[in-house]
Amino acid sequence: MFPKATDTSFKNKLHDQHLGKTAAFQKPKPAKGKAEAHFSLVHYAGTVDYNIVGWLDKNKDPLNDSVVQLYQKSSLKVLAFLYATHGAEAEGGGGKKGKKKGGSFQTVSALFRENLGKLMTNLRSTHPHFVRCLIPNESKTPGLMENFLVIHQLRCNGVLEGIRICRKGFPSRI
Fold first, then answer.
1. What is the pTM of this model?
2. Of 3, 42, 70, 160, which sits most exposed with the smallest number of CB within 10 A?
3. How far is residue 25's CA from residue 118's CA, in Å, rounded to a whole number?
């Protein structure tokens, strides 16, 4: 991110950099009953609203203490100087920085890799069968089918692509 950033300054920076310049970045439309959205991104499946509260904290990936110690003992004086006070800031800051120590410390990417591994182990130990649920209409009216909405969901779920692949004669597990 950038030094001394806050969620608000991050939002302002996003708006300055992308609003009106990037087609996929938009101001959200106010929605009743939902948390306040601060920006919207247009994805392949539709527009998704995002709230920036806690965004920076959730996306911090601090350095492992052993890496900091390695940099502090570096023979490169510039590197040692840059990280000379890094450990003191983490301990004196009082926030979440000094919370994890030693072997229990995990970066965001390491935690993601571990969680993904657990999920894959769990999936491999079962025989999953997936049911794709489709919403026939936005108004939840019985007996009403909005064709465009159903086709859009089939496309986004990969069902139409799977059918196309099967028609070409490639093996499939549908």
1. 0.53
2. 3
3. 34
